[in-house]
Amino acid sequence: MSSVPLEITxxxxxxxxxxFGNDIRGQLPIMDGLKSLLSLGLMNTNxxxxxxxxxxxxxxLTTLALGQTKMTGSIPWEIGNLEHLxxxxxxxxxxxxxxxxxxHLNKLEALYLxxxxxxxxxxxxxxxxxxxxxxxxNLIDGRLPGNIFKSSSLRVIDLxxxxxxxxxxxxxxxxxxLEYIALQxxxxxxxxxxxxxxxxxxxxxxxxxxRMTGTFPxxxxxxxxxxxxSTSGNNFDQQRLVDFLSPxxxxxxxxxxxxxxxxxxxxxxASLSSLTMLDLDGNNLxxxxxxxxxxxxxxxxxxLNRNQLTGTIPAELSRLARLEILLLDSNNLTGQTTEICRxxxxxxxxxxxxxxxxxxxxxxxxxxCCTLCCNDENPNCNDKDWSASYDPKATYGYIRPAYDFSLDxxxxxxxxxxxxxxxxxxxx
Length: 428
Description:
- This protein has four helices and 27 strands.
- The chain has helices spanning 146-149, 338-341, 393-396, 412-423, and strands at residues 16-18, 39-41, 63-65, 87-89, 110-112, 119-121, 132-134, 139-143, 156-158, 163-167, 180-182, 187-190, 204-206, 211-212, 228-230, 239-240, 253-255, 261-263, 277-279, 284-285, 301-303, 310-312, 325-327, 332-336, 348-351, 365-366, 372-373.
- The protein is mainly β.
- The strands form four sheets. A 16-stranded parallel sheet has the order 1-2-3-4-5-7-9-11-13-15-17-19-21-23-25-27, with no helix packed on it. A five-stranded parallel sheet has the order 6-8-10-12-14, with no helix packed on it.
- The protein has a domain at 238-381: Ribonuclease Inhibitor (Leucine-rich repeat, LRR (right-handed beta-alpha superhelix)), CATH 3.80.10.10.
- The longest helix has 12 residues, at 412-423.
């Protein structure tokens, strides 16, 4: 099909038009005659042009999905007339202009506007039924609206890579639904509220890359369902790395890079046996590398670089069969890496194994298998950010479940027919 046929607009009783995933080109015809249309799904096609303002006249629409198309322009204000809209997907099409037209669609349950260039504030939003909210990778600014966090239905909130500022909202109450909070890459200030412990079923919390201050709330230990926690790259006050994380036994990814932690790596971390990534890069940790790290058999990434660790590298790390990235440079470690080098599956293994460029001193560490050798005289060696770039929503299944377009809202006779066809013997 090269384009949406103009004749489709003659189907005045049409309720669902789903052409997603096809090689459809051209622009949308004027569709204001489809007064009965409930669901329009055209995502992942090659449809071009701007979003037609006449879509705002399709007053029965509950689903509008135009994401991942070749459309451009802005969100027409007429979209705000769709008072029955439950699902709106306009993601990944480079939209510009304001986010305002969608702020008062108070029946929305899923809003996907990520990967655009939208601007404006959402402080006046009215989304009491929202379940999944993804506005990530835009230019939206202002303060985070506290009423969103009070919602009893919200499961996913992803606002990362925007220009939000101000404090983390204090409006969080006992919430047994919210599972995913992604706020990284904004300009949030002030402390991480101790009310975060009220989000009992939270699995993912990422506030990295902001300007937050203060100390870590010990209420984080109440989030026993956490799988991923990232607080890297903020301006937190200096504090000891203590055992407030030990109850988080489901934690797999822990990134606390550059968080001004002091003291030694606490023994309580040994209880985090599910960890696949432990990132403590760029703190002020002292003492030795604990040998019990060699018992954390799921570790694939261990970053302890840019600290003040002393002593030798424990041979027990050689037990970590899944370890692919080991960063230990910019510490005060000595000795050799013979045991660790007997395994050869490192993607990155970096230590201070380069001799002095100023004196005749040899390297702090002897390493025959390191992928990069540094020394303390070269601050540019291994100065990468080493931050994860993947989008973990897929891990939790937050990938457009509403785009499955089931018959849940179809007329009863349609649902009956679908069940009968599904139960019919083969060959009938």
